[in-house]
C-alpha cells in the first residue's frame, strides 16, 4: 500500500521529509493531479467548492494510506492547501521556508530553488501555464504593477523586501517565468562572512580601514555572487554620525545604520509617463547633504552621475556592477558611459574613472555554491592611457580556500594612509 502511486504521485510521505510539511508537499501534487483529471476549472470557481473538493481528496488519501491523522489535523491541512491553491499556489510553502534563498519558475512543470548557493529541482509544480499567470497576478496585484501582452516584463518588490521578476508569452517562449530572490530577515554581519569563508580576517581588516578612510568602493561580480550582501556589510563599517543616501531600482539593501535616506527608482506608467531614473535620484541626492551615496547597481546612464559625485566631495561612496573580474569592471564602466551618448575622449574617460574609484572588490561563486571574494584591487591611475591597478588580495583557486596576499605598493592617496 505504501508504495502505491495515486494520480502519478508517490504516496510515501517520507519521500518528502516524513513530517507534516513533507505530507503537505505530496498532497499538493496529488490534488493538482486530481484537479487535472477531474476536468473541472475549480480554481476559477468559488472557494467553498474548491474547499469541499480538497477536503474530500485529503480524506481519500489519508484513508488509502491509513495515516494516523486526527480529523482536526486533516481539516487544518485541507484548509492550508486551499490557501495555497487560491493564494500563491506551490510558492506558499517555498516563501515560508527560510532555507530557500531563491525561487525560479520556468513554466508550470519546472520549479527550481536555491539552498546554500546551490540550485535544486523541486517536486512542486503548477497545474498549467494559466495557473502560473494567476499566481503572478496575485503577487503583483497589491503592488500596483502591470503585466500583460503590452507589458510582458515586470520587476517588483514584495512587502517583505523580496525581489520579483516575471515575464510572460509572447516574450517567454516556454510559458510564464518567475524569479523571486527572497529577502533575508537576519542581516549578515562581517563575522558571518568570515565564518562562511567569503572573506578572511586580513581582507576584513583592510576593508574596514578602506571604509573608515572614505575610499570609493566598487563591488563587482556576476548574478547571485553576493554583491548586495557585501554592500550591506560594508555599510555596517560606516561611522554612525554620517548621513547615507541609497539609490536602488528595487530596494534590497538592509543598511545597519541609523541615518539612512532610501530612494527607489520608478518605471513609467501605462501611458509612458512618470518615470524616475537612477540618474535623476543621484542628482537629487546631491542636494540632500549626503556624506556618502550608495548606488545599488550601476547599469545605465547614471554611471556619469555617480562618478561625478565620487569626484566632487562625496568620498566613501559605494556601488556594484556586473563584471567577471576587476579589469572587466573598469571596461564595463567605459561601455556604460558610451551608452549615454556623451562623447568623451578615451584618455579623459579613463582618468575620470580612476579618479572616482579607489578599490574594486571582485566576488565569485564557487562550484559548491560558496560565495567568496576572488580579488581586491586598488585602482592606481593610468599610464600611457592604460589602467594601472594593484592586486592586494587574490583567492587561491587551487584549494578554493584562503587568500594569497600580493606584493602591496599602494600609490593612491587614501590607500597610502592605510596600515598594511
From TrEMBL:
<dbReference type="Pfam" id="PF00437">
    <property type="entry name" value="T2SSE"/>
</dbReference>
<dbReference type="InterPro" id="IPR027417">
    <property type="entry name" value="P-loop_NTPase"/>
</dbReference>
<comment type="similarity">
    <text>Belongs to the GSP E family.</text>
</comment>
<feature type="domain" description="Bacterial type II secretion system protein E">
    <location>
        <begin position="85"/>
        <end position="366"/>
    </location>
</feature>
<dbReference type="InterPro" id="IPR001482">
    <property type="entry name" value="T2SS/T4SS_dom"/>
</dbReference>
<dbReference type="InterPro" id="IPR050921">
    <property type="entry name" value="T4SS_GSP_E_ATPase"/>
</dbReference>
<dbReference type="GO" id="GO:0016887">
    <property type="term" value="F:ATP hydrolysis activity"/>
</dbReference>
<protein>
    <submittedName>
        <fullName>Pilus assembly protein CpaF</fullName>
    </submittedName>
</protein>
